Structures are given as C-alpha cells and as structure tokens.
Amino acid sequence: MGSSDRGRTRERGGPPPEAVGSGTAEAQISALRLRIDELDTVVIGLLQQRARLSAEVQRTRVADQGSSLAPDREQAVRRHFQSGLGARGEDVADAVLLLCRGLPNAPRTSDTVSSVRRGRK
Questions:
Q1: What is the rounded average pLDDT for all residues in the chain?
Q2: Radius of gyration of the chain (CA)
Q3: What is the DSSP string of the chain?
Q4: How far, in Å, CA of 114 to CA of 95, rounded?
C-alpha cells in the first residue's frame, strides 16, 4: 500500500494502518464499548419509566371514554425525535411508541413499524 493509499483510507474514515490490530486500539475499543453498554443500561431504564408513564396516560384516557391511542400526540413525538436526531429520529420514535403501547409480545418486524406509520405519508 503506497502513501497515497493510506491517505485515502483515512479520508474514508478508516483507522490509520499502524492502529489496526494494535493492543492500544483494542483497549480503546473495549473501553468505548463498556461506556456504550453503560449508556444502554441508562436508556433501558429511561424507556421503562416512559412505558410506565405511557401506560398511565392510556389507562386515564380510556377511563375517560377516550381511545388508547392518540395519533396527534404520536405525530408530535415523531417530530420531536426527528428534530433531535435527524432523519432517523422518526424510526427511533416509532420503536419507542411501539414499546410504550404495552404490547408485551408485539412482533419485532419492520412490517410492524411500517403499520404504525399508516396515514402518515
């Protein structure tokens, strides 16, 4: 690999050739993954809290003769996630909304998420 090839690898976001397979890189990756795992644990806890609050909202709405779903509210949640996370935020919002609907055995397919979006095009 010539020096021009190395420059192109770095431009594409790849690691510098000397870092590949080094113990230093492996240690750094392990530390980063540990931090990611810690953040995932926090995210899971927050999603559990959100699901409990959402269930309470649904129970209250249904007890008042309302629907368990509020399409306008779901659209607002999607917009909020999209404004904070960009184009993929809507996908994240759909997953969060599905999780918080209280469907314990909901199928995990892209078709399910697509069906959540009905009427949004």
A1: 79
A2: 21
A3: --HHHHHHHHHTTPPPGGGTT-HHHHHHHHHHHHHHHHHHHHHHHHHHHHHHHHHHHHHHHHHTT--S--HHHHHHHHHHHHHHH-TTHHHHHHHHHHHTTT-TT---SHHHHHHHTTT--
A4: 10
Vertex 88 angle, CA 86 and 89, to 5°: 65
Other C-beta atoms closer than 10 Å to the C-beta of 74 total 17
Residue 81's CB is within 10 A of a number of other CB atoms, namely 20
pLDDT for residue 121 is more than 50:
no
CA distances for 120 relative to 5, 74, 89, 94, angstroms: 46, 11, 15, 12
pTM exceeds 0.70 for this model? no
Q: What is the pLDDT at residue 65? A: 87
Residue 105 DSSP label? T
Query: In the predicted model, what is the mean pLDDT of residues 43-63?
Result: 93
